[in-house]
Amino acid sequence: MPFLHGDFEHLISNSIPLLVLVTGLVYFYRRLALKVGVWIWLLSGFWLWLGGRPSFHVGASAIIYGLTVFLFFSGVFRKDRRLMALSLLVVFLYGGLIWGILPIVEENSWEGHLFGSCAGLLMAVIYRGQGPQRPAYSWEIDNDAEVEDGPDAYWKSDEGMQSGAQP
Fold first, then answer.
1. Which domains are seen in the chain, by residue range?
2. Long-range contacts for 8-11 (Cβ within 8 Å, ≥24 apart)?
3. How does DSSP classify residue 134?
4. Distance between CA 119 and CA 45 in Å, rounded?
């Protein structure tokens, strides 16, 4: 499906967003890029084959929708400033794609768009613990609980118990 296009205009209209989204994917998610791209391609194609209407579904738009949704939700799930900025950029550039998953224009493969989006969301959920993560700052780490309840806590020592300290 991604290698077939209706005409040259369709090829160009899919190539530019694909170039931008793949660049963002490879730059920010270098180790996950190939896995995510292949899974979005395979899952969206398989789901389209199972649930799509009997018609010709051509173009790389299912992959475009999958990458867009992956980049958006992956940035949101990870809560990293750089990745959230990428999420906002994706929404700014391709936020209008949301209308493509609805059966508004009968000539468009809205099923491919929908299944590509679902595949992108699934990949964002599955790989949320892998790849770049938000750094944990020193003020966010709760070291006090470990120190207070540690084996050397004052109220657990003989001296603390003799003076009447309460746990």
1. 8-135 (1.20.1540.10), 137-167 (no CATH)
2. 10/58, 10/59
3. P
4. 10
39 — pLDDT class (breaks 50, 70, 90): very high
CA within 13 Å, CB half, 127: 25
In 3-state terms, the chain is what percent helix, strand and coil (to 5)?
A: 65, 0, 35
* Tens-digit pLDDT profile for residues 132-143: 777 776 666 766
Q: Look at the pTM and tell me if it is higher than 0.85.
A: no
pLDDT digits (tens, 9 = 90+) for 64-85: 889 999 999 998 888 888 888 8
- CA angle (128, 75, 103) in 5-degree steps: 95
